[in-house]
Structure formats: structure tokens, C-alpha cells
Amino acid sequence: MGGFGLRMKQFFITLAAVVVALLIVFVALPIGAVVMIASAAKPKVPEAVVLSLDLRQKMTDQSRNTPFAFLMGKSLSTMDVVTTLHHAADDSRVKGVFIRLPEGGMSPSAAEEIRNAIVYVRRANKPVIAHSQGLYPDTMVVASYMLGASSGNLWMQPHSSFQVTGIATSTMFLKRAFDKYGVKAEYEQRYEFKNAVNPYLYSDYTPAHREATLGWMNSIYHSMINNVAADRRTDAGKLQATLEAGPYGAEQALKLGLVDQLGQVQDAEDAAIKRAGNGAKVMDIADYESTLTPSFSGETIAVIDGEGAIMTGRAGSGGGFNSDPGMISDEIAGAFYKAAKDKNVKAIVFRVSSPGGSDTASEQIAEAMQAAKAAGKPVVVSMGEYAASGGYWVSSGASSIVANPSTLTGSIGVFGGKFAIGDALARFGVDNRDISVGGDYSQAFSQTQGFSPTQRAALSGWIDEIYNGFVTHVATGRKLPEATVRDIAKGRVWTGEQALSLKLVDKLGGFYDAVDVAKGLAKIDSKTEVRLVDYDTEPGLFGGAKQNVHMGISGLKALSFLGWAMSDPKAEAVMSQVRDERLREQGASVLAPEAYQASVR
């Protein structure tokens, strides 16, 4: 038996060696060859180039190092566009920029960020031409128009539609459907403005829900109008009246001075080439970006990216290649500690675009930020699309906060609870039975039934503790009286413009404004060039993508059950869409571990 065991051991060692060799031959070597070929095929920038920027694609706020991006190409992010345009403005080879606008809306904060970059390009005396094949009704189509107006030369396709008349949104309320099919949504909210779960609890907007929603919509709308009026050198009131009297056809929009010229896409591109000068070539902005090399001169400012829902764990511990971006606390905190120890780093810019997440993960990141500050590294937060709830938790302790006027921020509030679907299942002959050991609270998050009075009281106390801690954290970080924070908290979302007057942020502006603030805090001369070093928080090639966040097991089952009970094959897809919208709406503050089957936001 001993000889047989030895031979088997040798067999498995040999087998493992063969497998490793095969992996090297058939996986590693081909990938290496592809990388070498890709590097050899790196595009070259012509002596005269017009950069082409297509904004019709969906963009994240920050760059994502997804696996095999070198094979399939990297999708552009808002930050990619902004930083690349800044490089282009200072590059003598770049003679102009040609932009294609989306037909619908886009993130107003992203539009503001890119608008700032376009203005920077134009100040370098480089022409920018934008082309639209039509602007159609969408929640934020006014943001697309604002971006086009910033070019100073906005074209439209003949006979297309110009439908920029305001901002509209809708909320699908499920309370009556839940009542009909026996689904109970049981949640505690802190406080009346924390309305992310209102669609499960009510059949219409509450007064607070309506007030908060109209508040941020009006703020964004008037910010967009004022930007367009400034770029087109017209009166904001007159512009607003003209837009709201629409919709118009492209020809009428031209007569009203809302656009500058009519023509097909090729006509506009040809015009951009002509203005750039003879011999100019068109180059996609992604190809141009791939030719840029990092600077190795100047003082170092670390850049830490944080986008998506905030959660504990490590990057790559869950999710697939197509997962949404997430702020993984171990990775973000690790980047802060790494930057804090780097003697070359003079300051840190923390880019935050998050609707919220775990309170424990948020606190881990916040503590790492404080460690960096204690090490003498000023930290400036640059807010992207939103920095709400947990996103504001991780931001509030920064040395300074810079937000775009339309950034959704604040939402200093919490909710927590569950969906109870036991009665709903029973109506269809499905009996769910619980069994447990320990205290009464061990069954609190069972999907079978609602909270008992003692369970509800315990949950309420837990929510109060988190909320009070949130308020104290903000008051300390922002150096505000706690009473002031309590008055402006209550779960309400503010825009960056509103947050400035409430002292929740320090300055309005984009990423490069945050860099300028960081330079000032680090006592770096404003005219001195700095080296921006990205402290990557994502996993490597085979590390997997970032994790997804879900409402919780019972919530998914409740929504899926409702879709099935309604006997509509499209219903479950609608419920899934509603779930995703709730995750985005109003920004969530904290998310309990899924083991509790609850969302505390």
C-alpha cells in the first residue's frame, strides 16, 4: 500500500505539472502575445487632430479596470473624458473637439463636469462643435442640451425634434398591489424625508417626499438653465420661457436661437475638420487617451476613486465581470493608508460617487481618511453624480468638500426593515414555517411574518443608534452644531448648490477644482504643475469585478412573488426595475449584511 500511495502521489504531482504547463501554453502565452500585439498597435497621434467624443454611450463616473479590457476596449467614464480633455487643451497637436450628444438625458452632474472641461478647451482657443440628432423627452434631457450649448457651436440634424421643456420624473407606488396580494413592507425611517422605501409603504407622495423631490428638481433645473444662458449669452428668464413653450422642430429651434446650425453628422464633422486646418485627422478620444503617459514631475497628489454602493469585504470576493461598481471598504481604506505612508504624497483627492451602503463599511473608510489627515495629508472630496447617505458619511470628515451644483448629496438619514410575504405565499398554498433557538429577535428578519412589538422596538432602537451616530459624525466632521445638523438631516437629499448654503460642502466645482483646493491646503503654489497618482482600489486581471448590492433576500422574493402573482410575464422585470430605481432614489445611507435579510439605508 505504501508503494502504491507513493506512486499515486507522484502521479498527481505530474498531473498538476502538466495542467500548469497547459495553462501556460494555452492561456498565459496567448494573453501575453495579445498584450504585446496590442501594445505594438498602440495608436499614434497625428500632428493635427480633431478629437471625437461620442456621449451616446452609458458612462460610469470613474474608470473601471475590468478584466480583458485590453481585448474588448475600455469604456469611457466621466473622469476619463474630463482628464483627457484637459490634456488635449494643452496639447498643440489637438486642434479641436467634435461631440455627439445623446438623444435623451444624462447625469446632470456628469454634464456639468464635462462642460467645465469643454470650457477649458475653448479657453485654449480650440474650437468645439457639438451635434444632436434630436433631443427627446427624458428626465434629464436638459442636461444634454446644456452640454451641447457649452460648445458654442451646436448643430442639429434637419427635421429632428427639440423637446427640452423641463424635468419630469415618476414613481411607481406598490402599496395597493402589496395589500392585494398579502405582501407586508415593514420599515422604520429616520425621518420623514427618508423616502427611498415610500413606494412600498404608500400609494402616493407624502408631503415630505413631494417637497424634497421638487426641491432637488428645481435646483438642478435652474442650474442647467443658468449655465445654458451664460454659454449662449442670453437672459435666463427669456431662455426658460422659450424652452417651456416648446417642443419645437430643429428648423424652429434654429430661428429661436436655441441651436446654431442645421446639418447632418458628417456635415458637422467636416466643419470641425475645416476649422482645425488642412490635414487634420479625426481621432476617437479613447484612442487618444491610450497614448497619454503619466507625468513624473511635480509634487504628488494621490487620487482615490470610490464609486457605487459601499460595502464591507474585499474586491473580487463576489460578483461577475458585468457587476456594477462598488466601494469596497478594505480596498478604499487600504488606499488611504498606503497614501498616508507615502512620503511623496502631499495631499489626497477622494472622488466619491455613491448612493450609500453599509454603515460599518462607511465608518471604516472614514477612519482611514482621518488616519491620512493625521499623517499630514489634507483630504479633499470631489463629489460626482451623488454622495448621498453613506456617500456623505465617508465625505463629511474631509479637509474640504467640492461638489458639482447638481450633485445629489446629504440624505443624512437611515431606514431599515423587511418584506414579510408569508401571508402572500399562503394564499397560493405555500406555507412557510420558522424555527429558531435563542432570543425573540433571532426571528426578527424572517420573511414569514411581520415584526412583533418587541422586535419592532429593538429595530427602532437600532435605527436610532445609527442615525444619532450619523448626525454626530457629520457635526464633528463639518464643525457644525449638532442641533443644526439634526435640523437639515431627517433623510433629505440636497443638491450641491443647496448643500453649499447649508455648509454641507465648501465649494462648487468639478474634479480639477478639487485638485486646486488640495494644492492650496498642501501649500503648493497654484501655478505649479502637480503629478496626479491614481491609487487603484480595484482587483487585478483575474481578481474578478466589483460586487453587486441588492435590497436583501426577502425584498427580492417579495418583488418576484408580486410579479408572479400578477400573472404577467413582464411584471417581474418591472419589479426588478423598481427595485433598482429605489436603490438610486434619494441615496441610501446604510445597508445591513444580507444575512439579516434587511436593508438599513
UniProtKB/TrEMBL annotation:
<dbReference type="GO" id="GO:0016020">
    <property type="term" value="C:membrane"/>
</dbReference>
<feature type="domain" description="Peptidase S49">
    <location>
        <begin position="372"/>
        <end position="524"/>
    </location>
</feature>
<dbReference type="InterPro" id="IPR047272">
    <property type="entry name" value="S49_SppA_C"/>
</dbReference>
<dbReference type="GO" id="GO:0008236">
    <property type="term" value="F:serine-type peptidase activity"/>
</dbReference>
<keyword id="KW-0645">Protease</keyword>
<dbReference type="InterPro" id="IPR047217">
    <property type="entry name" value="S49_SppA_67K_type_N"/>
</dbReference>
<feature type="transmembrane region" description="Helical">
    <location>
        <begin position="12"/>
        <end position="38"/>
    </location>
</feature>
<dbReference type="GO" id="GO:0006465">
    <property type="term" value="P:signal peptide processing"/>
</dbReference>
<keyword id="KW-0720">Serine protease</keyword>
<protein>
    <submittedName>
        <fullName>Protease-4</fullName>
    </submittedName>
</protein>
<dbReference type="InterPro" id="IPR004635">
    <property type="entry name" value="Pept_S49_SppA"/>
</dbReference>
<feature type="domain" description="Peptidase S49">
    <location>
        <begin position="122"/>
        <end position="274"/>
    </location>
</feature>
<keyword id="KW-0812">Transmembrane</keyword>
<dbReference type="Pfam" id="PF01343">
    <property type="entry name" value="Peptidase_S49"/>
</dbReference>
<dbReference type="InterPro" id="IPR002142">
    <property type="entry name" value="Peptidase_S49"/>
</dbReference>
<dbReference type="InterPro" id="IPR004634">
    <property type="entry name" value="Pept_S49_pIV"/>
</dbReference>
<feature type="active site" description="Nucleophile">
    <location>
        <position position="389"/>
    </location>
</feature>
<feature type="active site" description="Proton donor/acceptor">
    <location>
        <position position="194"/>
    </location>
</feature>
<comment type="similarity">
    <text>Belongs to the peptidase S49 family.</text>
</comment>
<keyword id="KW-1133">Transmembrane helix</keyword>
<keyword id="KW-0472">Membrane</keyword>
<dbReference type="InterPro" id="IPR029045">
    <property type="entry name" value="ClpP/crotonase-like_dom_sf"/>
</dbReference>
<keyword id="KW-0378">Hydrolase</keyword>
